TrEMBL record:
Species: Oldenlandia corymbosa var. corymbosa
Limits of the Pyrroline-5-carboxylate reductase catalytic N-terminal domain: 16-109
Pfam families associated with the record: F420_oxidored (PF03807), P5CR_dimer (PF14748)
Protein name (record): Pyrroline-5-carboxylate reductase
The protein's Enzyme Commission number: 1.5.1.2
NCBIfam families: proC
Alphabetical UniProt keywords: Amino-acid biosynthesis, Cytoplasm, NADP, Oxidoreductase, Proline biosynthesis
Length: 278
C-alpha cells in the first residue's frame, strides 16, 4: 500500500502503546509525558511483573494484562522487546494489525524487512535510541520504510524528540550508528573513569576528581553542540603554546588515542553486522 493511501494518524488524539515494558520503554513513555507530547492517559502497555507495572502506573500510564489489548487500543505501537523474542511477538500481534496502525521498532539489530515479514505489516519505522534516553539525552536515529507516510516520520520524530535528539538515515547505516551512539556511551564512561583516576593519581580526592571529570565531559559536549565550532578548533582554543593542555594532548597522540576510538567504533559496527540476522 502506497503512502498516499494511508489513513493519517490523528495528531491531536492518537493513542500510544508499548509492547515490552522494560527500561527503554519506560524512558520513552516518561519523556513523552514529561514533555507534554502526550498525556499519560493516552499511553498503555502490558506486563505481568508487579515492579514493571508499578513503574508505569506511577506516572499515569495504563497497564493492561495482554499485548493484544495494547495493540487493539493503540494507533501507534512501539515494539520494545528483546531481539530473541521479537519474531514471536510480531507473529502474535499479526492478526490485530491494519494499515491504520503505525508500528515502531526500537529492537536492537533486527531489520525492517524481517519485522515486516513476521508481522505482515508495511507501515513500519525503525528507531535506534541509546541509553541516555533515561536522562532525556538520547541520540536516536530513525529509518522509514517506503510504505510509511511523511507524517508518520514527523510523528515519530516528535515522540523521540521528547527523550533527546533525533536524526534520520538509511537503515544500511545502522551498524555504524551502533558503533558511534549505541556503544559510544560506554567509551565515554571509560574516559570519565580514566580522567577521574588521573585526577586521583595527581592528588585529588576521588569524589572531586569524578565530579570534575563528569562535568568536564558534559561541558565539552555542550561546547561542540552549541558553539558551532569544529571540535578541532575548540581543542586549539584550549591548547596554548608550551602549556599544560598541549603536553597532555602530546601524550594522548603518542598513545594513539584518536585511532583507538576510531577502531572501537569500527569494531562495534562490525560486530553489529555479525549479530544482525541476514
Amino acid at each position: 500500500m502506497g503512502s498516499n493511501t494511508l489513513v493519517p494518524i490523528p495528531a491531536d488524539s492518537y493513542t500510544l502503546g508499548f509492547i515490552g515494558a522494560g527500561k527503554m520503554a519506560e524512558s520513552i513513555a516518561r519523556g513523552v509525558v514529561k514533555s507534554g507530547v502526550l498525556p499519560a492517559s493516552r499511553i498503555r502497555t502490558a506486563h505481568h511483573r508487579p515492579e514493571r507495572r508499578s513503574a508505569f502506573e506511577s506516572f499515569g500510564v495504563t497497564v493492561l494484562d495482554h499485548n493484544h489489548q495494547v495493540v487493539e487500543a493503540s494507533d501507534v505501537v512501539i515494539l520494545s522487546v528483546k531481539p530473541q523474542v521479537v519474531k514471536d511477538v510480531a507473529l502474535e500481534i499479526k492478526p490485530l494489525l491494519s494499515e491504520k496502525k503505525l508500528l515502531v521498532s526500537v529492537v536492537a539489530g533486527v531489520k525492517l524487512k524481517d519485522l515486516q515479514e513476521w508481522s505482515g505489516h508495511t507501515r513500519f519505522i525503525r528507531v535506534m535510541p541509546n541509553t541516555p534516553a533515561a536522562v532525556g539525552e538520547a541520540a536516536s536515529v530513525m529509518s522509514l520504510v517506503a510504505a510509511a507516510a511523511k507524517d508518520d516520520g514527523e510523528l515519530v520524530s516528535k515522540l523521540f524528540g521528547a527523550i533527546g535528539k533525533v536524526w534520520q538515515c538509511d537503515e544500511k547505516h545502522f551498524d555504524a550508528v551502533t558503533g558511534v551512539s549505541g556503544s559510544g556511551p560506554a567509551y565515554i564512561y571509560l574516559a570519565i573513569e580514566a580522567l577521574a583516576d588521573g585526577g586521583v593519581a595527581a592528588g585529588l580526592p576521588r569524589e572531586l576528581a569524578l565530579g570534575l571529570a563528569s562535568q568536564t565531559v558534559l561541558g565539552a559536549a555542550s561546547m561542540v553542540i552549541n558553539s558551532g565550532k569544529h571540535p578541532g578548533q575548540l581543542k586549539d582554543d584550549v591548547a596554548s603554546p608550551g602549556g599544560t593542555t598541549i603536553a597532555g594532548i602530546h601524550e594522548l597522540e603518542k598513545a594513539g588515542f584518536r585511532g583507538i576510538l576510531m577502531n572501537a567504533v569500527v569494531a562495534a559496527a562490525k560486530r553489529g553486522r555479525e549479530l544482525s540476522p541476514s
